[in-house]
Amino acid sequence: MTVTVLLFASYADSLGSHSMRFDMPLGATVADVLGRVRALPGAERLPSEPLTAVNERYSRGTRVLEPGDEVAIIPPVAGG
Amino acid sequence: MRTSIVDAPIDASALMAEVARQSNGATVLFVGTVRDVNDGRPVSGMEYTAYRSMAEREMADIVREAAGQFGTSDIVVEHRVGALELGDASVVIAVAHPHRGAAYDASRYVIEQLKQRVPIWKLESYVDGRREWVHAGSGTRELERGAEATT
Fold first, then answer.
1. Residue A40, domain CATH
2. Is a pLDDT exceeding 80 seen at residue B137?
3. Which residues of A fall within a CB distance of 8 Å from B114?
4. Which residues, including other chains, have CB under 8 Å from residue B20's CB and lie 6 or more apart?
5. β-bridge partners, A64
6. What is the pLDDT of residue B136?
7. Alpha carbons B69 and B123: distance in angstroms, whole number
8. What gap in Å lies between CA B135 and CA A74, rounded to an integer?
9. Helix crossing, B140-150 with B100-117: angle to 10°?
10. pLDDT category, B145, cuts 50, 70, 90?
């Protein structure tokens, strides 16, 4: 199944991209997707357990993904 | 209730007018502006970016929570993104309520939750020419607890 990963702010700068797609096995979790991202150059600058969201809702690493899900890796927020 | 991420300057008086109602005895207007110093470093400007769809969703959730807790649906919030200059309004919150206590409390709730939960980031430009992402770093624990509750 295909999963989209969104990156923002400092994380997007570190990885040199705002969005990427991964082909994941069925039953893959958010943590599995993070593992794929970690293999990319620049990912060493991500914290060990970054905040994540699935389909615009904060989610934990154990969350099992569905085909087409959108996983966002969320840097510490700084609005206001 | 209305929330929005906007690209253009925010008209605070328009937001106040939007929450006006004759049954309301108090209106609280919060305006967050770009400050000229952060952590002792002179700032020259700020660029805001957002995960726009999620930011709008979180802002709507926060305002719904405030409406339920403080008993008013007269709440409007706009957060601006893009390049802002010193003194520009980055966020405006207008709350109206029959009584001032609840109006203040609701306004405070919205800004504090917004700063902890809404996926917006700022790239600060300093007078010395450097640019850095601001990592407020707060709220992580609360967000994880929230995620746990929903999964």
1. 3.10.20.30
2. no
3. 79-80
4. B27, B74, B96
5. A29
6. 67
7. 33
8. 11
9. 90
10. very low
- CA-derived radius of gyration, chain A: 12
CATH architecture of B2-150: Alpha-Beta Complex (3.90)
Predicted model pTM = 0.91
Summarize pLDDT for B50-91 with one digit per residue, the tens. Answer: 999 999 999 999 999 999 999 999 999 999 999 999 999 999
Please report the pLDDT score of residue B39 as a whole number: 85
Preferred mutation among A58, A65, A66, A73 to probe B, highest tally of B CBs within 10 A:
A58
The interface pTM score, or ipTM, of the predicted complex is 0.94
What DSSP string runs through A4-57?
EEEE-HHHHHHHT-SEEEEE--TT-BHHHHHHHHHTSTTGGGS-SS-EEEETTE
Q: Which residue has the higher pLDDT, B107 or B38?
A: B107
State whether residue A74 is helix, strand or coil: strand
Closest CA to B5 of A34, A80, A47, A37: A80
Give chain A's domain count: 1
Determine contact: A46 vs chain B, CB below 8 A.
no
